[in-house]
Design goal:
52% of the residues lie in helices and 2% in strands. By secondary structure, the protein is mainly alpha-helical. The chain has a single domain, classed as Four Helix Bundle (Hemerythrin (Met), subunit A), CATH 1.20.120. Helix 1 packs parallel to helix 6. It holds the Pfam family MST. It comes from Actinacidiphila cocklensis. This is Mini-circle uncharacterized 19.1 kDa protein.
């Protein structure tokens, strides 16, 4: 790893608030007005915004940049985060489904990060996997609007699952902030 002076200069596209990713009128997460009504709608809104934030942090980067790891010995990269969250979505779906669990997407532990290599096919597959797994978990939960309902063999409450999903994306969006800054210096929430 290089010296601090070898790091890219920090920058943002935002001109209104320098700590933001983009200006409010350009931010697709910006929902002027009231928050959604109700606990379920609020949780779904937070989840949608964190998912969108992760996609935004990955936009405009080539496969090498997406696969770039920031701090050895960590294997974390933006591409690895996409793959990891696809795997996690599948795990959540397995928690609530009846029957045998679906197999792991990428294999053994840490294969989601270890296999995040700088190839366009891997990037394309990661995006497709994440979109598919998010949709599958969303569809499985759509039939369960009662947040107190317990699902799956372990009796996980819908509320707990939704909160855990928001937490997981929020945590990894924090990682994505730092990873993106290491790649090209772009900062912002």
């Amino acid at each position: 790893m290089g010296r601090m002076s070898d790091q890219p200069a920090r920058w943002t596209r935002a001109t209104v608030y320098p700590d933001m990713w983009s200006d409010p009128e350009d931010d697709p997460r910006n929902s002027e007005g009231n928050s959604p009504d109700g606990e379920l709608a609020t949780l779904e809104d937070f989840l949608a915004n964190y998912r969108l934030t992760l996609r935004m942090k990955c936009e405009g980067l080539d496969p090498e940049q997406l696969a770039r790891r920031s701090v050895p010995p960590s294997t974390m990269s933006l591409l690895g985060l996409l793959r990891h969250l696809a795997e996690v979505e599948r795990d959540w779906h397995n928690w609530i489904r009846d029957g045998e669990p679906l197999p792991k997407l990428y294999g053994a532990r840490d294969a989601d990060f270890d296999g995040a290599v700088a190839e366009q096919a891997v990037v394309d597959a990661a995006h497709a996997d994440l979109e598919r797994e998010q949709a599958a978990t969303d569809a499985a939960l759509a039939g369960h609007p009662d947040l107190g309902e317990k699902l799956g063999k372990d009796g996980i409450a819908v509320r707990e699952l939704l909160v855990h999903r928001v937490e997981e994306y929020a945590r990894h969006c924090g990682h994505a902030d730092l990873l993106r800054e290491c790649v090209d210096g772009r900062v912002g929430q």
